[in-house]
Amino acid sequence: MRDPQLNTSVTLLERLTEASRFDRLIEKLPISIDSPSYLYVSVFILLDAVILNTYTHLTGGTHAVVRNPFHIALYLSILLATVGAKYMHDGHADAMSVLVERGVCDTEQADDYALTLRSKLLFYAVGLVGFFSYQIFVIGVDTVLQVQGIAGVAFTFLLLPGCYLPVAIDFISEYMTLHILIPHWLSRGDVGLFFFDPQNMGGFQPIGNLLKNSYYFYTGGLLLYLIFFYGLFVTPIQGSVSNAPGVAEATMFSGLWLFGLLTISYSMYKIHKIMKSERKAQLRTIEREIHDLIDNPHDISNAEIPDQDQLDALEYRLGQIQATSEYPTTFTMWTQIGISVLLPQILQLTLQATI
To answer: Which residue, of 18, 38, 109, 218, has the fewest CB within 10 Å?
Structure first.
């Protein structure tokens, strides 16, 4: 029997937040915060930016933001990933519920096609073992302490495994669930379309909107990547970073951008294929029913219609099917997706040519 705590109802970050009692702490605060995980991540960022980096600066080092004022983009990216992971996690449940209500699909086994908390914990454990093994046996704790000081050790053995790594795992897991696992699952199931959908998207508008918005979060991360690496070299703001981003940074960015392009293309294509197949099947059904109803249906001049009311009903159904889109998006949504796909790469090429 599946452990009720090891399903998609809880993210890795929420589990850590619960284990560290931040969910109880948030109840005592005078302000309202949507999720304890937001407070959890904010505390770690403040510990990094205010306490550890300030300590480093006062003991002969340089504060990360003083060295590169655009280092703030990294903190913003962590917050963005936290909000994005929660949005995708909650949106997944809401969108699938709408599909069930509209009779589009049955999601009793939906969790089997999403990364469970057990899977995320496994990735987390593997990441921790690999990371700590590298730090201890390859670099060495003494080296980390000598080069980065106590603040560096705290970051390496507390902040990164305690917050930043779980945030990354949650975001990637939720993004992959939406863009790879769920479309794949829907394509294998007996999925229908809600042809009476007022939005003419067969009931798939929540899924299309979720895919679009989740990609916005991904695009936001790419833009913050550009700000962090290129901001100091294309603005008059001063810092102490001397090496401009080169081939390595550009290659990494292009790889991340291509990954995003492939995933949004895959998810949209899979949903489109489902909608197109179901729409085509229903059109064939209507065609057969009309053919059986009308005497001599291939001769429009001599065709006889024994039951006009039944034909009117068939034509109404036909109109509903023909009006239903084969895509879970509108033209406006496609335009927004297209801009979010092209903008980061255009900016990166422009910035690379500028420095």
So the answer is: 109
